[in-house]
Design brief:
The protein is α+β, with helices and mostly antiparallel strands and 505 residues long. It is built from 15 helices and six strands. Strand 2 and strand 3 form a beta hairpin.
Length: 505
């Protein structure tokens, strides 16, 4: 830390020892820098903000307002195009000295760098114009910047409002012409198809081409195959339920033939055994004999005995419906197969006629689709044009008119003037320090010891006489005056700059 402090002291002593050199360098650098700053022309900037309301309830309701944002963005992007910039140049003082195309191209390129259009929000735009130099004074450049921005606003209004409606009229006229041509072509195609079908009535029964009919029949065949699988599955399910459902049911306490009697006898036999009677009891023996006789009678009676099962009857009815549906589907499938075979025979029998019929039908369908699309587009554009005529869907408003600049936007001359002073003082100090490094002079004994490597026994202080002290005081005053003169010149230049800014009208 001590070495750093000593080095700083040595450097400051060297600069102070050559302070006149430093002051001369500072004056030279400052005068040159201030001259350069004074020669830089002022640039004046004018700004304006415009608001474009693109929301319209009626346009949104009828579905024609979806392209407004895109239109506004297109205008914003093309606002700084070469054509529009050329309009600005011709309408302002920028075009006074333009006499040929080459000069106009150079003027357009220069103006393109000085004009910016920024979208701050979806419908808020800021237009900025800068003007400077060109042999014009500050007041003329300030007015020119304002005129440039105002002309840009006028172009924005023309491009967005007047230009859009003219473009709508041209578009409608073009669509009407295309519709007329498509209508004639469609009528010719329809007449050609009618004549062809009349000549080949036997080969093309009904409406549509043979290929179309075959495809329709095959599509219906696929649907029937799917329905057949479903009907067969349902019938198999009903048959499975029928196999597990009895035709009759035996209800205890209700006589219903041999099987009903058998059920009653079995119930009585069970009751006897429940009372504790053994198989050797006479009543049990008699009951068992009765059960055996009734069993033989019930077997001989067959499945018709007993009470009819209502679930079985319902399943029989459902089965009949499913079988009828299955038969109808199989019949329709056979009919379609015959129809497909007949149409295929016609198609392969007369391939030229079939191909011609397909081509004519395809051409007619394409023309019809194009005509319908053009008709829809024409009506949509016509409705949009009527809405724009009756209601101004785009509301244009200047939020902030073009400002009249009262001071230059560039350069920031006060800051530059002060920076030149700082650079000049720094250059003077640096020059004095560099000069001190070139000469073999030592400010302290420690510096001398490090330079020579020999011990220094002592130092002798300078003896200053009264005359020398007075001379040095006078020189110090002169140096202080010269140094203060730099600040005086700076303040004068700043004052002149403020005065010039106040004179801008």
């Amino acid at each position: 830390m001590t070495n750093i402090y000593e080095e700083v002291r040595i450097a400051l002593h060297g600069i102070w020892h050559r302070r006149w050199v430093a002051l001369a360098i500072a004056w030279g650098v400052c005068m040159l820098g201030w001259l350069v700053v004074a020669m830089v022309p002022n640039s004046y900037e004018s700004k304006a903000r415009i608001f474009v309301q693109i929301d319209d309830v009626l346009a949104d309701q009828i579905g024609i307002g979806g392209d407004r944002k895109r239109d506004i963005e297109r205008v914003r992007q093309t606002l700084t195009s070469s054509v529009n910039l050329e309009k600005v140049i011709r309408a302002t003082r920028l075009g006074d000295e333009v006499t040929n195309d080459k000069q106009m191209q150079a003027a357009v390129a220069g103006l393109g760098k000085n004009v910016t259009v920024v979208s701050q929000q979806d419908n808020l735009f800021e237009i900025t114009g800068v003007a400077g130099g060109g042999g014009r004074n500050d007041g003329e450049n300030a007015k020119l910047a304002q005129d440039v921005v105002q002309k840009m606003i006028d172009i924005f209004r023309e491009e967005n409002l007047a230009g859009g409606r003219g473009e709508m009229t041209d578009t409608l006229a073009f669509l009407d012409q295309q519709l007329s041509e498509r209508k004639k072509a469609l009528e010719a195609a329809e007449l050609k198809r009618t004549e062809f079908e009349a000549r080949n009535a036997d080969m093309i029964p009904g409406s549509g081409s043979i290929t179309t009919k075959i495809e329709a029949a095959r599509g219906e065949m696929r649907d029937i195959d799917s329905n057949l699988l479903a009907a067969q599955s349902a019938l198999a399910s009903i048959n499975g339920q029928l196999s597990g459902t009895p035709q009759t049911i035996a209800i205890p306490g209700v006589q219903g033939g041999a099987k009903g009697a058998l059920a009653q006898a079995l119930s009585d036999l069970g009751s006897m055994r429940a009372r504790g009677l053994t198989d050797s009891h006479p009543d049990v023996i008699a009951a068992r004999a009765q059960v055996a006789n009734l069993q033989r009678s019930a077997n001989a009676e067959g499945p018709g005995g007993g009470t009819p099962n209502p679930a079985y009857s319902s399943l029989i009815s459902i089965k009949a419906d499913r079988e009828a549906s299955l038969v109808a589907l199989q019949s329709r499938k056979a009919s379609l197969q015959a129809e497909i075979a007949r149409l295929s025979a016609q198609q392969y029998g007369e391939p030229a006629i079939a191909a011609e019929a397909s081509r004519i039908g395809r051409d007619y369908d394409v023309l019809k689709e194009q005509y319908d699309k053009l008709l829809r587009d024409r009506e949509s554009l016509r409705l949009r044009g009527q809405v724009e005529t009756e209601r101004d869907a785009v509301k244009f408003e200047v939020i902030d008119p073009p400002t009249m600049p009262t001071g230059p936007a560039a350069p920031d001359r006060p800051i530059l003037l002060m920076l030149v002073l700082i650079v000049g003082i720094g250059a003077g100090c640096g020059g004095a320090f560099a000069l001190g490094q070139l000469k073999s002079a030592y400010s302290t004994t420690g510096q001398l010891e490090r330079a020579t490597g020999l011990p220094v026994i002592g130092s002798i202080s300078e003896a200053i006489t009264r005359t020398t002290r007075a001379s040095r005081a006078r020189n110090l005053k002169l140096f202080a005056g010269g140094f203060a003169g730099l600040f005086v010149v700076l303040f004068v230049l700043l004052g002149i700059e403020m005065l010039k800014r106040g004179m801008v009208e």
